[in-house]
C-alpha cells in the first residue's frame, strides 16, 4: 500500500516501474487479471509480474536494464526473491549505474529481529563483510526506524538514511456509512486485519480477548502465511470463553478493506513492531478506534481520543476492550468522528508528501 499511494501522489513527477511476483504470498495461481491483454498498471506505474520460473538473477537484471532507472528501490531487506538478487547483481557489476535505495519496512525492529534472530544476524554480517551494502542508501519511515537501522547494521560514517513517512490516502466517504451503532448490551465488534505471522501477534490478541469480562465478537481477516503459527493461534481460539465469539472473515481484497473495517467497533493489533502499519491509519480513516501495542509510530492515541497504545500486556489490552464495550452509542459516535479527523490530518500532511518528493526526486 505504501508504494501504491506513492505512485498516486508522485506519479505526475516521476516515472515508476515495479517488478514483483505474479501472485500473492501463498497463492498457487497467478492473478486472474494477468490474462488480460491490457498492460498492467497500478496508479499509473508500469508493473512487471514475474512468474516463479522468471525470478532468476538474469531475468531480474534484464528487467532493470530494460528500464535503465535513476534509482533502484528495494522494498525489503531480508527478501530473497528480489532484494538479495539485486544486491548480488550490483556487487557483481551487472547493473547499470543507478542509486540504490533500500526500505527495510520495520525488519530491523527489536520484535522483528528476535524472530529467527541467529539467521538474520548471520545474513546481515555476510552482506556487510562481502561489501554488498557499500553505497546503499536507506529509507526509514520514522526517526525511530532510522535508529533501528543504525542499531542493526552498526556504525558507519558514510551511511545515508533518509526519513520520509509512508504515504496514505483518505477513503471515499461512502465507507463511513458502513457502520451501524451497536445496540446496548450487544457484544463489542472487534476485528484483526493482517497477515497471520508471529510478528503480528494474533495469539496474543486472542489471549487478551480471553481475559475480557464483557461479551465480544472477534473477526479475523488475513492470509495464514505461517502454518505452524496458525496452529498455535487455533489452540488459543479453542480456549476462548463462551462470551467471546470467534469468526474467520478470510482474506479481503483491496476494495473490501475500508467498508469491512467500518462495520466494526474497534481494530485490535498488539503487533510486535511496525515501521508504519498502514492498516492502523486505514482503520482510523473510516472512524474505527484502534487498540495497538506501543511498538508502532502511532503513539499517544488515548490523549487524542482515538484509541489506546500500550505495552504488550494482555491484561491491559483486555481492560481497554472492556472499556469500549461499556461505551454507549453517543460516546462511540464521538470517538469515531475524532478518529476520522485525526486520520485526515495525518494522511493529508503536506510535509510527508514533500519528504517523499525529496527522497525520490531531489
TrEMBL record:
One of its GO terms (molecular function) is ligase activity. Gene3D superfamilies: Glycogen Phosphorylase B (3.40.50.2000). Its EC number is 2.4.-.-. InterPro entries: Glyco_trans_1 (IPR001296). Keywords: Glycosyltransferase, Ligase, Transferase. Residues 185-344 form the Glycosyl transferase family domain. Pfam families: Glycos_transf_1 (PF00534). This is Glycosyltransferase family 4 protein. It comes from Devosia albogilva.
